[in-house]
Structure formats: structure tokens, C-alpha cells
Amino acid sequence: MSILTRPTLRWAIPVTAVAVVIGGGAAIGTFAAEAEPSLPPRTAAQLLVDLQTSRLEGLSGTVVQRADLGLPAVAGLAGAAAGDLGALVDGTNTLRVWYSGPDRQRIALIGTLGQSDLIRDGRDVWAWSSRTNEAVHHTLSTENGTKAAPSELPATPQQAADLALAAIDPSTEVSVGRSATVAGRDAYELVLDPRDDRSLVAQIRIAIDATEHIPLRFEVFATGADRAAFEVAFTQVDFRRPDAAQFRFNPPPGVKIVEGSEKGSEKGSEKGAGPERKPGATPDGGPKTVGTGWTTVVVAQGDPLGEVGKKAGEKAAGGTTEEKAAADQIAGLLSGLTRVSGDWGSGRLLTSRLFSVLITDDGRLLAGAVTPERLYEVARG
């Protein structure tokens, strides 16, 4: 579709699988339903144009994110392995978000054990955790200064919608659903239905603000399910530009500041040309994608899940009771993966409602929002 030219956050559905599969989720319901408002009719094409042409000057609000992926509930796994912001993959989470243009953004994860902040103010990016009272500072380079700060999962409906819209191609049926009220605001609903039955995503629903044309709620439904496996929605939203003070990091007393360095996410992007290689055989050993749209598969070398378990175990040695328990749960998850084999080789398989992950014995990890059979097809090369 030619109208899909607005830059996204450069996230892809399969990329999130690598982060999501290491967390679990308790059973959840959907966000509380409100009366269906009466809105003037709009077609799917008109709603797509609304999304791509909207102009967001500023925003602040409260976001609730919930996940029910059908994985073992591994409490504390994401936090032990990837820091507090990694806990977004587990159960229900509440965030506060502020946006004031592409170079001023802030996300605060509010947890029972403290708060984690990810703040961008121009070229300065700060990641802070109240639990450890440690702040990591990154300075973005000039050429990459307009890019959003990195994160594993979409923290707002807008980011999740960008991710989904990037997958629209002829394999997707786009339609209009029922109107809704989200965070006290009237909204249209855009519905995306993948036509490829190799995808585990049955449907995506995006509630779009009827006035501002900004996504207010994002839901992903798995095949055969009648409730969302993943959803992120505003419960309160204000479209006024936040004060600049919201994006200044003021180190609290006693904070430990660590200077980081921007990782070259674009490094080696032009090295993909050359002789055909087996999936995952990139020059720098980094992950690559195979396929397009809903059946895209991420392929990486090594055993990331095993590394997660190793690091959690190292952290737990001499750590708190909570950290040791998390390490035990990770070890249990890894040892419980199903052994599988075929003409592609052999390995271990992790499945959920929305994602499948295959760890081959020859040192590859394949992940995507696809059936195991699709992973075997890619592994076969």
C-alpha cells in the first residue's frame, strides 16, 4: 500500500518474539468495555490515511499492558535477565508515558518493587532503576540522533500499531470493526486479519482516536482465541505537549552513573550482499530475518535462552532469595523445552499462543509469530 510511508520505530513482529518468549503471563481478561459511541462512518482506507497523516505534537498518559501468551509463569525472569523494563513481557504492567516530538520521550514503568525510567532528551538517553539506584547514560551520535531510544517491546498503542502496519501487504485483509470508547475518548477500530495460516496471529485490532487519529488501544488475538493474548491501551491520555522538565534526568541522591556507548545498530547493514548463506549465517554473527509480513522469522546464531539462564544464575549466586528463585525458574523452563527433530536437524522447541522458538543443536535460534512448521521450513534452508 503506497500510503504506508510514514517512518516507524523500525520494530518487526518477529523481533519482539525473542524478548517475549523469555517471559510468561498470568491469565488476563480484556480491558473494561464501555458503551459503543455513534460515529460518522469511515472506511478502512480512510482510517489508514488518518493514521499516516496524523500530527502528534505532544502526549502524556497512563498505559496498561497485559500479556497472556500461554507460557509457564516465570515470575521475575525478565527482571532478572534484562532489567525492570524487561518485565513488560510478564503479566500486567502500568506505565506512564510522555512525548514531545521525536527527540523528547519518556517511559516510566511503575512496579511493586520500584520504578524504572527510560528518558530521551535530545542526544541524551538515560535508563534508571530505583531498585538498584543505577543510571546508564548514552549519548546518541549525530547521524543516529533522530532515532528513538531502544526498547524490547512496544510501550504504547502507537508503537504497537506502527509495528503491525509495517506488516500490511497483500496477505492482510483490512476492515473496520466496531467503534469504542477508550480512556474516555471515542475511537474507530481498524481490524487486520492475516490471510496466511502459517501465522499464529489471527487478528489485530487497533482503536484509533476519532479526533486526534492516534492509536489508543492495540490488541493481538491468537488463532482460536476469543480474548487478546497481548494488549496495550491508554487508561488516561492528554494530548497537550508535556513540560520540558519531564525529560530532564535529575539523578537522585547516591545514584551510580554508568556511561554507556551507542551500539551501532546499522553497522554491517550493507554486508548482507554476497553469496547465498544458510539462515542465520550473517557476516557479523548478528540476527537476520527470513521471509516477509506475518510469517517473517528471526534467525540468530547461538543459544540466547541458554545465555539468559547462565546470566541469571551468575547473578543469583550470592544474590537475594528472589534472584535465586528466578534462576531456578529459568533453569526449569529451559530444561522443560520439547525435543524435536526432522530433516532440518534436531533441537528444542518453545511454543506459545503467539510465538514459536526453535533452538537447534547446531547453534541457531529461530523465532517468529508462526507455527513450528514454519520454523522447520526456515531451518531446513
Automatic annotation (TrEMBL):
User: Which of UniProt's keywords are assigned here?
Assistant: Membrane, Transmembrane, Transmembrane helix
Question: Which InterPro entries does the record match to this protein?
Answer: LolA/LolB/LppX, Sporulation_related
The record's region (Disordered) falls at 245-292
Gene3D superfamilies for the chain: Lipoprotein localisation LolA/LolB/LppX
Residue intervals passing through the bilayer: 12-33
Ranges of Basic and acidic residues composition bias in the record: 259-279
Q: Which domain of life is it from?
A: Bacteria
Protein name listed in UniProt: Outer membrane lipoprotein-sorting protein
